[in-house]
Amino acid sequence: MNELEIMKEQLELMKEKLNSQAIINNRLLRSSIRERLSWTKRYTYVEIFLLLPFIYFMYAGLTYQIGLSWWLYAYTVFMCTACVGLDFWINNIYISRRDYQNKNLLMLGKKIARQKQLRWNSLLFGMILFFPWFCWLGYELHNHIPANEWTGIFIGLIVGTVIGLVIGLVILLRMQRTNENLLDEINDIEDEGEMVE
Amino acid sequence: MQVSEQEFGNIVRDNRATIYTVCYMFAEGADEADDMFQEILINLWQGLPNFRGESGMKTWIYRISLNTCISMDRKKRSRHTLPLSMDIDLYEDPDSDSRQIQQLRRRISKLKPFDRAVVLLWLENMSYEEIGTILGISAKNVSVKLFRIKEELKQIK
What we know:
The complex is a heterodimer. Chain A has helices spanning 3-19, 26-66, 70-93, 97-102, 105-144, 147-191. By secondary structure, chain A is mainly α. The model of chain A has no long low-confidence stretch (mean pLDDT 85). Chain B is mostly helical. Chain B is built from seven helices and no strands. The longest helix of chain B is centred in the first third of the chain and has 22 residues, at 5-26. The model of chain B has no long low-confidence stretch (mean pLDDT 83). Classes of the chains: A mainly alpha, B mainly alpha. Chain A binds chain B through residues 3-4, 7-8, 10-11, 13-15, 17-19, 21-28, 32, 35-36, 194-196, and chain B through 5, 12-13, 16-18, 20-21, 24, 37-38, 41-42, 45, 81-88, 90, 97-98, 100-101, 103-104, 107-108, 120, 123-125, 150, 153-154.
C-alpha cells in the first residue's frame, strides 16, 4: 500500500473518531440562547417607549374630556408603570449578560426556568392591580356618562379589555414558549451527556 | 439560505468531523484548534444567508473552514476561548489510532498552509475540479500543486 493510501486511511480513521464525539461549542450555544431571548427584551422597550406614553396621554385626554377622577388617572399611571417596570426587570435585568457568559449551562437553565415563573407571578400581580382599577373605572364612567350612552360605553369597555387581555396573553405565552424550547434543548444536551461543566 | 438555529446546529453536527479535521491539520495544539473551530462556526453562521446552494453544502463548508484556517494561520493571534468539549484529545492520546492520526498531522503540517488545504481535499477523494472550486484555482493548477506536494511528502517522514 503506498504512502498516500496510508494517509487516506489515517484521515478516515480520524473522521471516524471525530464522528463518535459530540463537539459542543459552548460559546455558540450561549450566544444562541441570548439571541433567542432578545425579542423579549425588545418587546419591553416597545412597552416603555410606545405603549406607556400612549396610555399616559390617551388616558389623560379621556380623564379631562369626560371629567373622570385624577386619582383614578394616577392609579392608572401607577398600575401601567409598575407592570411594565416588572416586565422590564424580568426580561432585561434578571438574566444579565454576565449570566450568559459566566454561568454554567445548568445554572443558566435554572434562571431561564425561574424567569418563566416570574412572568406568571407578574401576571398575577397585574391582575391584582387590574380588577380594582376596572371596577373603579366602571364606577367613574357610570357617574359621568349620560344614561343613554352608557350601554355603548360599557360594551366598548368590555370589548377593549378583552382584546387587550387576549393580546397580552398571546405575547406572554409566546415568551413562555421561547423559554420552554431553550430549556428542552439544554436538557437534551444534559441527557446525552454532552455537557461538560 | 435562511436557516433556523436548530437547522444550523444540525448542519454543524453533521459536518463536525470535517470542520475539526481541517482545524486539526492547521492548528499547533488543542487550544488553537478550539479557537479555529469556533471561528469557523461564526463564519458559517454569518455566511449562510449568502449561500445559494450552487455548490454542495460540504464543498461550501470546506471552503469556509479552509479559508478561515489559512487566514488565522497568517494572523496567528491568540485570544481567550471557551474550550470545546470532547472526550478525546487527538494531540495527546497515546492509543494506536490517535498515534496514526498524529503521524498524518505531522506530515501535513510541514506543508505550507495552502498546500495543506490542497492535500486535505485530495485525501477526501475530491476531484481536481472540486478542489479548484473550493480553493479558487483552476483544476490544472490543482494537478500541478498536487504533483509537487506528493514529491514533498515523499521527503517527509
